[in-house]
Every structure is written in structure tokens, then in C-alpha cells.
Amino acid sequence: MDELKGITSITCTERTKKVNYEEIRRDALKMMPAKFCVAWAYKLNCHGSRLKDDDHVVVDGTQMTSTELLKKLSTQEGWAEYEARRAMGTQKLGSKNIITLSRLARAFASAVIKLLQMKIAKQSPDMLGIKAAAKDCNLPDEYCFLNAPYGMKEENIVEQADNLRKFFAQYNATIKHSIENGWIEKKEGSKARDWVAEFNNYLLFKGIKA
What we know:
The chain has a two-stranded antiparallel sheet. The longest helix has 27 residues, at 154-180. α1 (21-31) packs across α5. It has 2 domains: 17-121, no CATH class; 123-210, no CATH class. 50% of the residues lie in helices and 4% in strands. It has 210 residues and is mostly helical. It starts with 20 loop residues before the first helix and ends with a helix. It is globular, with a radius of gyration of 20 Å.
């Protein structure tokens, strides 16, 4: 073939690897005490992932502010690139090792589930309200957050798959309603995430039939 004339070798970047949440969890534990990793995962999963300057967590009387958390995260190599991309409206990173807020929330999702099961922390009224608004949704309270599948055992995911889809669908509807009423600002050209589709993609990735 003429198109191959003169070509003796070709290389390219390999397919981007998936985030290893066990590595994220391990690295986060090196960055700060386990109790604060868990506390921030609880805050991010159940009480909102958009941090305000006065946000904080308190564990057994000891407080850590969002400023302190972000200062720790900012010491990572690649954090400046992540912040710049986020400012431009894209958070897609080449590095799968950097600890971001969303990765921290997912890496400790199993601990959040246990916190809620043991009633050490309470599920947020917002998450419970979404469950209540979803028709015929009997999802246990400890699974009522978007990253719950990342912390659930496979058998629990299979058992709760229909309830999870109902919860995610109601979340989608709630966000859509909020955008339409101007309660949530939507960036020009951006598209709201479909959490039902994300859940189904997660099942495909994990090889779970549910």
C-alpha cells in the first residue's frame, strides 16, 4: 500500500487507564488522618461537593476547614493543571493518581455507608427528600447518595439496582427542575450529567449484570 511507504515504526499514547480508587484511598490516608478522609467523604457525598469558604467537618470535637483541606490537596503534583482545567469548564485529567474532591468522595464511599448504617452521622434531608420524591423507591438511607455504588458490595448493587436507578432518575429530574427555574446556574454549552446512564456504565465497567 502506498500509504505505508517509508513508514518503519509507529507508536502512540496508550488507552487512558481507569482511576484506581484503592490507590486514591491509600494516598489520601498519607495526606491526612483517616478520620478526616472519612469526614470529608461524608460531607461531599451527603451534603454537597461544592465547597464554600466556611465549610468544615468536625470529628470528635476536632475541626478541619475546607481551606485546610484544599491546601493539602494543592500540594499534589498536577493540582495547578486540575484547577486551571476546572476554571475552563473541563476537569478531564491525564493523571489518574491525583486526589480530587470527587475521587476522595468515591474512594471512601464504603466508609460513608458504614457511618450512616451505624448512625454515627445522619443522612442529609436533601438526599432523603430525593428518595421520598422517587416513585416506589425503597433504597436504604445509607445508599442514598450518588457515589454509593462505589462503596457497595456487588450483591448489594444487584439487590438495589432498581432502587438506585429510581433514586438517580429522581435526582436527574430534580436538577432539571432547578435549572429550569434558575435555582442552579448552568454553564453555557454544558450538559447535565445523566446519573442513570452513569450507573449503567459503571455496571458495564464492573461486569455486573443488574
